[in-house]
From TrEMBL:
This is Carbohydrate ABC transporter permease. One of its GO terms (cellular component) is plasma membrane. Keywords: Cell membrane, Membrane, Transmembrane, Transmembrane helix, Transport. InterPro entries: MetI-like (IPR000515), MetI-like_sf (IPR035906). It comes from Paenibacillus nanensis. It is found in: Cell membrane. Pfam families: BPD_transp_1.
Length: 296
């Protein structure tokens, strides 16, 4: 039986596709506009009228911003904290989720309740800062990693996914003499690729975009600065009308780029790496988030 489109269904489809097209344009246009400005000649950008294509193409803006003091150090620190923080976050979260998913774990409910409480209550900014100080994490790279190594929400999402796996797999492995670590690393983790990829993307984006912890704990140490923190400082300076000369090599350099070009170029530098990672995880994203979130 062939489907026959009615005038009402045709009108609805036209409206739906048109609406989604407008949403897509509204979503993509700001990014394309920044990309065009970042590749456009700085002096020409001041004239305005740049939309989605550069009027006078140049690489000069990117060449200039990489002459900022501490920018390369900030980029390395951001990459390192993202890679290390994501790996340890996934490993610790999945191991804890595996323990909480075991029916024979006696303290399963009290421990789960303890982690639920952390989703609703926190100690506040000042107690957290004092804790970091007492743990000797101030002016330390590990302040980026250790405080967020376990996230309760991530643990519950992974546990919900594990609850949906057949328990017979673990029972069969135990009958064959497999230990809990063997079951976890060789059976459970390979089956959890979708949810782990999803959580990994969340953790990576959070680590890459974080700047407030740098501001609180490591702002006095230029060797521990991060890319987003440098971006925040530069954007603050340009919005305040400052030429950012304190982070430029010379006043001659400051005159070669406009504030608009600085903002666009460094925003693209800070955004591009996470955009490159996303396509490799996209096929896991919807499946992992859906399966991990709808089960109780």
């Amino acid at each position: 039986m062939k489907y026959r489109a009615t005038p009402g269904s045709v009108a609805f489809n036209v409206f739906l596709y048109g609406f989604m097209l407008l949403v897509g344009i509204a979503t993509i246009y700001p990014f394309l506009n920044l990309l065009a400005i970042s590749f456009n000649d700085s002096l020409d950008t001041v004239r305005g009228g740049i939309y989605v294509w550069p009027r006078m193409f140049t690489w000069n803006n990117y060449e200039q911003i990489f002459r900022y003091n501490d920018l390369l150090t900030a980029f390395k620190n951001s990459v390192l904290r993202t890679v290390l923080g994501t790996f340890l976050g996934i490993l610790s979260g999945s191991m804890l989720a595996y323990v909480l998913s075991r029916k024979d774990f006696i303290a399963r409910k009290p421990v789960s309740l303890f982690f639920v409480l952390t989703l609703y209550f926190s100690g506040g900014l000042i107690p957290v800062y004092m804790l970091m100080r007492d743990l000797s994490l101030i002016n330390s790279f590990w302040v980026y990693i250790l405080p967020g190594i376990v996230n309760a929400w991530n643990v519950f999402v992974i546990r919900s996914y594990m609850d949906g796996l057949p328990i017979s797999l673990q029972e069969s492995a135990k009958l064959d003499g497999a230990s809990d670590l063997t079951i976890f690393f060789r059976i459970i983790l390979p089956l959890c690729k979708p949810v782990l990829a999803t959580i990994g993307l969340f953790v990576a984006v959070g680590q890459w975009n974080s700047w407030f912890d740098t501001f609180l704990y490591n702002s006095t140490n230029s060797e521990l600065t991060t890319l987003q923190y440098e971006l925040m400082k530069i954007l603050s300076d340009t919005q305040a009308g400052d030429s950012s000369q304190a982070r430029l090599g010379s006043s001659e350099f400051a005159s070669q780029v406009s504030p608009e070009s600085i903002r666009a170029s460094i925003t693209m530098v800070a955004t591009l790496p996470i955009l490159v990672v996303y396509p490799f995880l996209q096929r896991y994203f919807v499946k992992g988030l859906t399966l991990g979130a709808v089960k109780s």
